[in-house]
Amino acid sequence: MVATKECDFDLAIIGSGGGAFAAAIRATNLGKSVLMVERSAVGGTCVNTGCVPSKALLAAAEARHVALDAAGRFPGISTFAEAVDMPGLIVGKRALVEGMRSEKYVDLIADYGWEVRHGTAAFAGTPEDPRLEITSSEGMRESVTAAHYLVATGSAPWDPPVPGLRETDYLTSTTAMELEEVPESLLVIGGGYVALEQAQLFARLGSKVTMLVRSRLASSEEPEVSLALMGVFTDEGIRVIRGATLASVGRDAQTGGVMAVAELAGGQENFRAARLLVATGRRAVTEGLNLDTVGVKTGDRGEVLVQKTLASTHPRIWAAGDVTGHREFVYVASAHGALAVENAFINAGREIDYRHLPRVAFTSPAVAAVGLTDQEAKGEGISCECRVLPLEYVPRALVNRDTRGFIKLVAENGSGRILGITAVGKEAGDIAAAGVYILEAGMSVEQVANLWSPYLTMAEGIKIAAQSYTTDISRLSCCAT
Questions:
Q1: Domain span at residue 238?
Q2: pLDDT digits (tens, 9 = 90+) for 454-467
Q3: Residue 72 CB: number of other CB atoms within 10 A?
Q4: Which residues does 246 contact at the CB level (< 8 Å), separation at least 6?
C-alpha cells in the first residue's frame, strides 16, 4: 500500500477503539496506508473499561441475584449464594478483557497490516499544512503527515463542579470496575444508563445503594420506563431520591466514608456512604491534541464539532465516536469510522442518520428503545396514538415468571405507521433490534399485528402490542395470537 504523494500515510488515526478500528479496516480494504496512534491500551473504552468489563460484572451479579431469588420465583427450586469473592471476580473480568483485546483488536492489526505507534499524539503545523507530533513513552519524538486524519480519542467520565468532590476519593464507571471489595454502602450520583447499571450491579453484589437523581430515572426515555425501574429498584432495596442536586461532598469523620449534601425540594439533606460513585455524563477526550492549531473547532465539552459527514472544520481532519459528542454507543463509533473513511477517500457523501438508532441499558430487566418517544413525536408536530402492553400479556414473560415491565408502541394517527418502540423486560435489547427493521421498513400497526411471530419469545410482545390497537388482548388465547 502506497501513501498519498508527499504524505507519510494516507490515514493517521488518533485512538484505537471501535471507531478507530472500523476506520482502519475500511481504509486498508480500500488499499490505503494507515497509521494508528494509541497512548494507552489498544481497544479503547469499550473493551478495556466500558461495555465488556461492565457487562461481564453485570452478568455475574445477575447470576448471584437469580440464585438468591430463584426459590421465590420457581416452586421446587432451592438455591443460595454466599458473599462475593470480589478479587476473584475481578481476576476473571480482567482475563476476559485481555482475551477479547487480543483476539478482536491486537491480532487484527497484524491481519490487516497497518502500523501502530504507542505514544501521545498532538497536531502541529498550520491549517494549511497539518501534521502529527508523536511522543513515545520513552520520550522519543516523531513527526508524521497524512492525507487525512481521524480523531477517535473517545470520552472519559465527567465530574461536575461540586465543592469537595475532587478532594474525595470518588468512583467513576471506570474505577468502579477495579474495586477488589464490595462497598458496604454506595451513593450513586446520576440517573442515566450508566448510573442505573452501576447501582443495580453493586446492590446485587451486596452493597446498600442510594441514588441521587436530578429528575427521574432514564429521563430521556418514556415515563413508563422510570416507573417500572422504580418498582424494580425498590424491590431490590435500592433507594432512589428524585429531585436531588448534589451541593457538596466531604469526608465523614465518624465512619471514614463520604458525606454528601444534596439540595431537595424541602431543603438540604445529608447522605452518608462508604463510597461515592459519580455517573453524571462523559466528556470528549481532546485536551492536549492542539486542535485549534490546525483550525479544528470544539464545543463546550471539548467535543470535535462535525458535520453529518463527520468532517470537522478542517477538510482533511475527521472525527468518529464519543469524541464527537454524539450518542455514546460503540456501534455508533464503528459506523462513524467506516463512514468517515468512505467520505474522505471515495467522496461517498454519506451522512450519519440516527432516526432508527437503538439504545439499551443492561439493567435487569433491561431497558431498550428505538425511534421516537411519545413526547418526541408530539414535539415534531405528529399526532400519534400509543399503546402500553404490560408483560403479563406476553406468554414468554409468564413462563419466565417475571412480568416486570412493558412494551410501548408509538404510532402515527391515521396511517398507523410505527414511530417508536420502548421495552422494559428480559431481552428488551432484542425487541429494540427487531424494532429497527420495523421502523426502517415503515411498517404499520396493522402490518405488524398480522405478521408471523414465534411463540414464547419476548419479541412476540411487539405483535401483541400491535394487536392491542384493535383487539381486547385479555380475551386472546396465549397460544392463538
A1: 175-280
A2: 999 999 999 999 99
A3: 9
A4: 160, 162, 165, 189, 212, 260, 261, 262, 263
What CA–CA distances, in Å, run from 256 to 78, 173, 253, 291, 472?
39, 22, 5, 43, 58
Residue 210, classed as helix, strand or coil, is strand
pTM for this one?
Answer: 0.93
Give the chain's domain count.
3
- Between CA 197 and CA 429 the distance in angstroms is 14
Asked if residue 419 is part of any domain, the answer here is yes
| Inside any domain, residue 429 | yes
Cell readout for 326 is 454524539
Q: Are residues 205 and 129 in the same domain?
A: no
184 with 321, same domain: the answer is no
Distance separating alpha carbons of residues 452 and 439, to the nearest angstrom: 17
Q: Which of 388, 376, 164, 385 is nearest to 276 (CA)?
A: 164
Determine how β-strand 146-151 pairs with β-strand 155-157.
unpaired
Cα 400 versus chain centre, distance: 27
pLDDT tens digits, one per residue of 123-132: 999 999 999 9
- Grid cell, residue 173, equals 464507571
| Contacts of residue 455, Cβ cutoff 8 Å, sequence gap at least 6 | 395, 479, 481
